[in-house]
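ARCHIVE CARD
Drawer: 12
Card no.: 0347
Subject: one protein chain, sequence and derived structure
Cross-reference: see card 0346
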Amino acid sequence: MFKSFEDIYELAQKNGKKRMSVACAADETVLSACYEASKMGIVEAVLTGKKDEITPLLDKLGIASDYFEIIEGVDNRDSILKAVKLVRDGDCKFILKGFTQTADFLRGVLDKEVGLRTGRLLSHTAIVEIKKFNRIIQYTDGGMNIYPDLNAKVQIVKNAIELAHAMQIEVPNVAVLGPVETVNPDIQENIDGAILSKMGQRGQLGKCNVEGPLAMDIILSKEAAEHKKLKCDVCGNADIILVPNLVSGNSIVKTMVYTSDIELGGLILGAKAPCLLLSRADTLKTKLNSIALGNVVTD
């Protein structure tokens, strides 16, 4: 069971280098992350994009122009599809979004001819190491599904549970976020939380413990739950927090990034292989963390 990104890096280095395609690689931070990950022995990056844009950046960073394999792409769409095809054909284990729009990247991932569709819903999860708690928590989905209904939430939870199992958490604790713990029929999030909790109890979501609806204070603090006289094993021990919509999830994680002592990584789940969907504003460390995750959750 991983408690920190340090644990993830340790396993990734034991695994050795895994090949990763990089769609539209002409970005300094992306290239730096690929280089650092390669030097750490966890990834072998295959870059797609325009060589005349990538090579000057490599020179600027002091990286030999022939250090990476570069596959020429005539434009962003062509570069994305070539990176996706490398994963689909098994030449690479996972894919990293470079300097391109998220919508364009996802269109490539979902392309009917060369994409990574599985028939499952794609969802994003943010893996957050909270130093105060000395543990890792998944927050999902704050990156893809805008207003998921109950059926979508079921699939989002299943994706997150599958990742938790890959991260060596045998029976992940899943907390379904709501504003209060009571099942209020006027609050859809709370109804969904109650249904998901019952589905979890009956084994419909796989090997996991699910509780909901739960407010954030008792999700994070066992003491807060005890103060509210709520007995709940998930409280203070959540491995996965299901947020009700994209805005709430995105806001929670970004607030932590700028106000708290955390480490962050992110993945898209539900495709044939992990897709590392990162913001152009994300730091080098966040990109490195995500690459390490890609290594440990792939065969």
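Annotation on reverse: The first helix runs from residue 5 to 15. The mean pLDDT is 94.
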